[in-house]
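so my prof wants the structure for this chain in the tokens format not the other one, which i didnt know existed until like an hour ago. anyway here's the sequence
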Amino acid sequence: MHIDIDKDLCIGAGQCALAAPDVFTQDDDGFSTLQPGGEDGTGDPMVREAARACPVGAITVSETAG
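here's what i got, hopefully its the right format
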């Protein structure tokens, strides 16, 4: 699984961090970023829900080949 956050779209609503706090957090400016070690989202069933919860669609979750 690969997670991409479009920093230009992110408005810092924090819905991702609420839905999947083990994967997402907010940086010092309040914008979404990945937790250390959260890059692949493996093991957290809420990653896709966090992407859906983003009000501006700044998070993309895709399957990785392998």
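also thought this was worth mentioning. The chain has one domain: 2-62.
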